[in-house]
Amino acid sequence: DAGVTQSPTHLIKTRGQQVTLRCSPKSGHDTVSWYQQALGQGPQFIFQYYEEEERQRGNFPDRFSGHQFPNYSSELNVNALLLGDSALYLCASSPWDRYSSGNTIYFGEGSWLTVV
Amino acid sequence: QQQVKQSPQSLIVQKGGIPIINCAYENTAFDYFPWYQQFPGKGPALLIAIRPDVSEKKEGRFTISFNKSAKQFSLHIMDSQPGDSATYFCAANAGNNRKLIWGLGTSLAVNP
Fold first, then answer.
1. From residue A34, how far is each of A24, A104, A107, B45, B95 by CA, in Å?
2. Searching chain A, which residue's CA lies closest to the CA of residue B106?
3. Which of A102, B46, B93, B112 has the least CB density, counted as fewest CB within 10 Å?
4. pLDDT tens per residue across span B50-107
5. Count of CB atoms within 10 A of residue A31's CB?
6. b/e B1-25 (16+ beta carbons within 10 angstroms → b)
């Protein structure tokens, strides 16, 4: 049973460019959340997707957008990259119906983005 | 405002010791409290989680103690090993809210 998988694992982009990160949730999970973790900090919630809709959003600008596909996989897009966007981007998956399915939230290994 | 307060920020113990990491929360709606272990360059790995209807949960060498009245919970690592050296995060969420509220993390070093 594959856990949460993310790609790519590492990438380097130039300021102003755009990036797309991908996530496949754990089998049986239908909800995907994205977090940004700067070096030495805790994860910061970006947004969450369920049924192909953005359900919650953290305090991130509109340059951060996402998408969820019918197979529950998800993409995170960041436009007009800034140096401050350099971070580990984490995908978390969980079942939406926590009470019948159990509320377990698992993370992928993350995608390291460096903006130069 | 930090909704989940974690302490200490860093901790050093000798092999075999029992490091204890504490977290406190204010939101009484929180009903799920996981602990994550994170190694450098890796994503957080779910260690153990507890709900407020139990006061203690053990999984292997990891134990969560939960005090609902005090709104506190803690992680104990029995017989700690150098391989346990990592950053530990407590977190919480409420209801169907999938957004985790995180503590600031504790950097644990276990000396051989």
1. 12, 15, 9, 15, 19
2. A42
3. B112
4. 988 899 999 999 999 999 999 999 999 999 999 999 999 999 988 766 788 999 999 9
5. 23
6. eeebebbeeebebeeeeebbbbbbb
